[in-house]
Amino acid sequence: MYIEKKWNIYLIQHSHTDIGYTERQDKIMRYHYDFIRQAMGILDGIHSGEITGSDGFVWQCENYWQVENFYEIADKATRKKFETYVKSGEIGLSGNYLNMTELVSMPVLEHAIEKAQQYGKAIGHPITAGMCADINGMAWGYADALYDYGIRDFYSCLHPHHGMFPLYKKTLPFYWESPKGNQLLVWNGDHYHLGNEMFLAPHGGTTYMINDEFSPGIRKNFILNQNTEDTYENEMKIVKTRIQRYLDNLNEEGYPYDIVPFMVSGAITDNAPPSAGIAKRVNELNKIFKDRISFRMVTLEQFFDAVRNHCSDIPVFRGDWTDWWADGIGSTPAEVKVYRDAMRKYDLCRKLDPHGLLGNQKLMEKTAKEQMLYAEHTWGYSSSVSEPWESLVGMLELKKGAYAVNSNTHVAKNLDQIMAAKGEVTIRQDKPQRYLIINPHDVALHTKACLYIEFWEYIQGVRYDETIPIRVVDCETGQTIPSQVKRIARATQVEIEIVMRPKEEKLVMITLDERKYQTTENHAHIGAEGIKDLLSEKDNRVDADRIETDHIILTLDGEKGIISIINKADHTELIRNDSVDGAFAGVYEVTDMVESACETRRRMGRNRKSTATRRYRSMLKDRRIVENGTVYAVIELDYQLEGTGFYTVLVKAYKHQPKLEVMVRVHKQSVWEPENLYVALPFTAGEDTTVYFDKTGCIFRPGIDQLPGSCQDFYLIQNGVVLKSDNINLAIITKDAPLISLGGLEARPIVLCNCKDIGRNRSPVYSWVMNNYWETNFKVNLGGFYEFFYTLMVHEPCGEAEMYAECEAENQGLIACYTD
Question: What is the pLDDT of residue 1?
Answer without folding.
Answer: 47
